[in-house]
Structure formats: C-alpha cells, structure tokens
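TASK: fixed-backbone design
INPUT:
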C-alpha cells in the first residue's frame, strides 16, 4: 500500500513538472544571433515567453555586449543607466516573472542599427500544450474565441478527436467537425 502510494505521488509530481517545463531561446536564432543583421522585433514577436523561460545571447564579446535597460533607455538607445551588463558572449537571462524586459547592445551605433530586443513575458495558459493558430470559431468573439486543441468543457478536457469544445469567453459550443 505504501509503495503504491509513493509511486502514485512520484507520477503526479512528474506530471506537474512536465507541464511547467521552461523553454530556452537563443536570441536571434535560427537565422541569426546577437548581431547587427537580425530583426529582433520580428524574432521576439514570433515567440511566447513565459516565466521560468531563459533567453541566451550568443555573440563575440570583442564586438558586442548586452545591457538590460529601462523602457525609456530602450526607446532612446541610451546605455546611461543600465539595470544589468552582460559581456561573456554566452549570456543566460532567466525570465523569472511576467512583464516586459528591454535589452540592447551598448557598443556605439549598434542599438541605433537595430541591436535591441523587447521581451514580453506573459503567463502560461492553463493548457499544457501550445494552442494551434486557427480552428473553429466562436461566433460571439471570433477570432479571439478560436477553438483550441484542448479546452475545458464541463470540467473535463476535450481533445481534438471530440466533436465540440466550448468558447471560454462565452460558454458557447463550437463544433470541431470539418464541413
């Protein structure tokens, strides 16, 4: 009985840990790095950053650095009052909480040349898997109410092979059946 209980607790702990795993992002990859040739606005906007994720800045420390700055300093490309200075060439930044963080290269002209990135850290969704970009729509709030691959419906998870899911905003059933 005690052994079965221990195994059950261990399995529950593993399930919880697997749903809260953090992601690691190499800034600028796959097509670039921390350099003057990467569009960081496009790079950052194509990712969802969550608490406990990490971003890694990889670069030549002889040519660049990474400064964490305020929004005002980010907007003006100012390195006058930094929050943090990173200069190893392989800098790991843990995103510990929700909110926006601002980074730029402090070398003269580099920030003005585009070497700055704004990281928006948002809460994780209640679903443990990423939602697809499209699906059936709630007629009340389309497209914000797009049906996702896993929803709560009557307290139970509904998987894609089921016929309907419920819009979280309006409680309306949305058919998953393709017509």
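OUTPUT:
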């Amino acid at each position: 009985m005690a052994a079965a209980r221990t195994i059950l607790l261990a399995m529950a702990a593993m399930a919880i840990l697997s749903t809260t795993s953090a992601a690691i992002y190499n800034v600028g990859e796959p097509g670039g790095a921390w350099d003057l040739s990467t569009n960081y606005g496009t790079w950052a906007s194509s990712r969802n950053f969550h608490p406990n994720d990490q971003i890694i800045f990889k670069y030549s420390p002889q040519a660049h650095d990474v400064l964490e700055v305020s929004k005002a300093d980010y907007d003006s490309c100012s390195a006058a009052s930094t929050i943090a200075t990173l200069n190893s060439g392989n800098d790991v930044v843990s995103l510990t909480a929700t909110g926006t963080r601002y980074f730029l290269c402090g070398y003269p002209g580099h920030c003005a040349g585009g070497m700055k990135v704004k990281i928006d850290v948002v809460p994780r969704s209640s679903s443990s898997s990423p939602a697809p970009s499209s699906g059936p729509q709630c007629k009340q709030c389309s497209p914000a109410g797009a049906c996702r691959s896993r929803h709560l419906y009557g307290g139970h998870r509904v998987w894609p092979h089921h016929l309907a899911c419920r819009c979280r905003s309006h409680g309306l059933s949305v058919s998953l059946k393709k017509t």
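COMMENT: The first helix runs from residue 2 to 19.
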